[in-house]
Design a protein that fits this description.
The chain is about 35% helix and about 15% strand. It is an alpha/beta fold. A seven-stranded parallel sheet has the order 3-2-1-4-5-6-7, with helices on both faces. The relative contact order is 0.13. The protein binds nicotinamide-adenine-dinucleotide.
Length: about 280
């Protein structure tokens, strides 16, 4: 088991709080950081320091002596471009420079919104593989594309290893029909993050962050490098949420769901499938 401390950004967020608890219980020494206070009692072997991802020095200090940086901090929803630049673009640069300095591995919380404008896969079509084209569905998704490509650059140029988890929908349980395809249980995410820390070699890896969902849109990725397989399934919730769909055709057509509809203004608005032959 990795003995050096693990840095977790976004520790005060939904996934950060869950990971802090699970990783501490698994025996890791944690350095937690966020721009807002940590709302829970500190778990054993953890310390918390408030820091802004925009501040290079603060991030470099937090990363000192760490083997892995779990980068879960930043703007986590669609927001205007100007609000995203600082935490998600400049912040990411600070994370990668700190990792380069420490020889640390980066685990990046990427998102399905990096590829959100791919159409949903129904039963008969091929699922998307990890090397599919990026098709971001907003400025937030675009920042995740930037993050994944930052990982590509730092691996190729500096040998900084990184795992990019394209998280689908990680919540306590699925809340609509789309999440029967995209849901990632907290337990599957925690097990995945531990494999990202422990795997011997990862290079630049991309993982579809979803549970074992039969309705998944996603196919191959680099999970063999990690030795991770999801164990939970959204299918257990089909009776509860299978009928929960929106009346928005753009949202229902694309993998990114409602994010695709935000300020959607393609000429003519939504058109039937065959009208968009040019990708
Ligand atoms: N929950 C999901 O389903 C999901 C899906 C796809 C991707 N993700 C990604 O996973 C990560 C965590 O998601 P979450 O649901 O816990 O989001 P969250 O919003 O609850 O957590 C993000 C945290 O980042 C912190 N943060 C924001 N700006 C910061 C700054 N300038 N400096 C330092 N910290 C800052 C926030 O205070 C917050 O605590 C995010 O990167 C998100 O984009 C989550």
């Amino acid at each position: 088991m990795q003995k050096k401390p693990i840095l977790l950004t976004g520790a005060s967020g939904n996934l950060g709080r869950m990971l802090a608890k699970e990783l501490s219980a698994a025996g890791y020494e944690l350095r937690l950081t966020d721009i807002i206070p940590f709302p829970d009692p500190l778990p054993p072997q953890a310390r918390f320091v408030k820091a802004d991802l925009n501040e290079a020095l603060a991030i470099v200090r937090q990363a000192e002596g760490c083997s892995t940086i779990l980068h879960f901090g930043g703007v986590s929803v669609e927001r205007p471009f100007e609000e995203i630049i600082g935490p998600n673009l400049r912040g990411l640069y600070h994370i990668y420079e700190a990792a380069r300095r420490e020889g640390a591995r980066v685990v990046f919380a990427s998102s399905n919104h990096a590829i959100g404008f791919h159409e949903r896969v129904t039963g008969n079509e091929a699922k998307l593989d990890h090397d599919c084209a990026f098709r971001p569905d907003g400025y937030y998704g675009l920042s995740k594309v930037y993050g994944e490509l930052m990982g590509r650059l730092y691996w190729d140029k500096h040998g900084v290893e990184n795992v990019n988890i394209r998280i689908g929908s990680s919540f306590p349980k699925p809340v609509n029909a789309r999440m029967l395809s995209t849901w990632l249980s907290y337990a599957d995410l925690a097990r995945l993050v531990i494999r990202c820390i422990e795997a011997e070699k990862v290079g630049h890896a991309v993982i579809w962050g979803a549970s074992r969902n039969p309705a998944s849109y996603w196919g191959t990725d680099h999970r063999d490098r990690l030795g991770w397989q999801p164990q939970d399934t959204a299918e257990d919730f089909r009776a509860e949420v299978g009928n929960i769909v929106s009346d928005d055709p753009v949202e229902e057509r694309y993998q990114g769901g409602g994010y695709c509809s935000i300020e959607y203004s393609r000429k003519g608005g939504f058109s039937p499938r065959d009208q968009f032959e040019l990708e």
